[in-house]
Amino acid sequence: MNKIGIFYGTEQGMTEMMAQVMYRVLGDDVASEPINVNRASVAQLLSYKALILGMPSYGVGEIPGRTTGSEEGNWEEFLFRLDEADLSGKRIALFGLGNQQKYYDRFAGSLIHLYHYVAGYGAEVVGAWSTDGYHFTYSNSVVDGKFVGLVLDHHNQPELTKSRILDWLDQIKPALLEKLDC
User: What is the reported pTM?
Assistant: First the structure.
């Protein structure tokens, strides 16, 4: 595909809503309609050179899926099907949701698993995001002082969600578009 692929897992619809916002901002000429991983095929994801992947945080920093109580399939089930896929040559940006007040000691902890998975299978991960403006004591999704991707806390900081999305997309868009020109 010669567009940016957007794939997300969702539990209550918030991650889907954020993926839709990103799609609208990027536009149909640049990005494909977001796809829920519980309806996606491995071939669909692998057909993109540039991707945005989103996930909610769940449990104690676990990958959302049926073993963590998800009613529908989520990233856990999709990653199992993607097992040992070659993601080299892919450029991927990640975003995750979290609640820094309720889970201040493990804020947005699930995102690191997706990061390790895609990087471990050869993808180039772009879009690290500053921890400035967040209020938490610990997140395993912080590497070298930054989140491994955009982290949104729409529950506690809804007034910052749109500006964070716009700023992050401005940051990652050139790197993702560059991959499409390869």
Answer: 0.94
